[in-house]
Amino acid sequence: ESMLAWERTAYHFQPPKNWMNDPDGPLFHKGWYHLFYQYNPDSATWGNITWGHTVSTDLIHWLYLPLALIPSEWFDWNGCWTGSATILPGRDIKMLYTGDTVDAVQVQNLAYPSNLSDPLLLNWTKYENNPVLVPPEGIGLTDFRDPSTAFLGPDSEWRVVIGSVINTTGIALVFHTTNFTSYDLVDHVLHSVEGTGMWECIDFYPISTNSSVGLDTSVVGPNVKHVLKASIDDLKLDYYAIGTYDPDNDTWTPDNAALDVGIGLRYDYGWWYASKTFYDPVKERRILFGWINETDTEKDDFAKGWASVQAIPRVVLYDNKTGANVLEQPVEEIESLRLNSTTFEDILVEAGSAIQLDIGNATQLDIIAEFEIQGTDSLKAMAFTESNISECIDAETKTSYGPFGVAVLADESFSELTPIYFRVVKDDDGNLTTYFCADESRSSLAPEVLHTVYGTDVPVLDGEKFALRILVDHSIVESFAQGGRRVITSRVYPTQAIYGAAKLFVFNNATGINVTATLKIWELESAFIRPYPLNHI
Ligand code: DQQ
Fold first, then answer.
1. pTM score
2. Contact at 8 Å (CB) between 349 and 355?
3. For the chain, what are the domain ranges?
4. pLDDT band (50, 70, 90) for residue 376
5. With respect to CATH, is domain 337-524 assigned 2.40.260.10?
6. What highest taxon heads this organism's lineage (predicted)?
7. Mean of the pLDDT values across residues 29-40?
8. Residue of the nearest CA to atom 9 in ligand 1?
């Protein structure tokens, strides 16, 4: 049994050892990006939840710092759970987090930096009169968690959003505060959606519809919409919707009720959860962190001594071409890891073929690929079914083109491979829908890991090619379609397609259409992720 497949990643953030889950309280302070995270200091499984802490100047290379919050008081005795940072005018910092109390009640606590002039924010003080919020009347004692970043309203009061559930309706509660120690509950919810269950890790932020700059969290006004995201506990999936926020009444209305929170769009159609954004004042952008959990067994996690990584941070923008979704793109700083590149121009990938791309090492890659279908006549010719990718397609499908795409982390005999691909489907009325999928069914010979086929439809507009950006990091594959309109993160466990045996292919499994592919592929170097040399300060 090879343990190599369970090796650590090379440029994704993970702690030195043990369990990690949600990103917490991301913020920028005095030259450093800070990330906190749910962490078990004692074991590779969830429990004893503390706040790990790390800093970076570029969101790619990270330095570990000492734990920031440790369960120590009755109000967080069973865990310092997820929370968010708010930067006040004057750059004071308030950190709100959920405490799981000694009686297993979910309460909200306030913490703040002991020394704001410390760029590393090494020491945190818990407010002496915590908790600042307990579950309000009618809210379950274990259904009240994950305070949002606060935003300032027209009445100069701060709003904090906290997720909950009533029966099976997911809800976003709003509280007002002026001092972060006392709060008033607004008498109606910001938003709710029936049947979606408990809303965890709510994120709520403005997005510009006419520019590509990110907005600080309190911005409202013309050409600004608001994104509401809930992590759906029952599904362990992050759903968002774009809509309009009314700051006078603290209500939010989705642009499209059919695509409401929990029933519409997801940030990621793969394995990725509990996300959180923050505003980066340096590059004026909104940055999204997300947690990539394991899909192996707990026994394997104990054996390897660690569990989970954070996804590469993504910039979030409004997609003004579709007007219906956000765009997610890896932060540009990932490009600093690029080494040698290889370009393939207009290579013909005939129906039913796979071509190995000779690029040397294929375990740490940044891939940009574009595909075109050759000849429009062939668009009418196809009618076949592919039972092994049925999750990507409508069972009523009569005509299709594809799949075509790239296969990453593939060995030469295809005993293991993870194909990332498009597939165009034509319905009875002649309408074309493009599906974007990641097939993990053959990603690992190990039996006890998930072998899911992930997929979603993706808008491909007139004049656009089929466009992919893929980051490969040994056992993590983050795939972005059409400039980040849809994203699929894969956690895979190759046992054969590792190190020198891992190869890269383009393939076209259609039976009647040929495609051409143009690719630029960079090898990525490893990122320094190591302890901060605190003995030097
Ligand atoms: N993880 C935290 C909770 C949150 C959940 C506990 C989401 O605060 O609701 O570790 O993964």
1. 0.95
2. yes
3. 337-524
4. low
5. no
6. Eukaryota
7. 98
8. 200
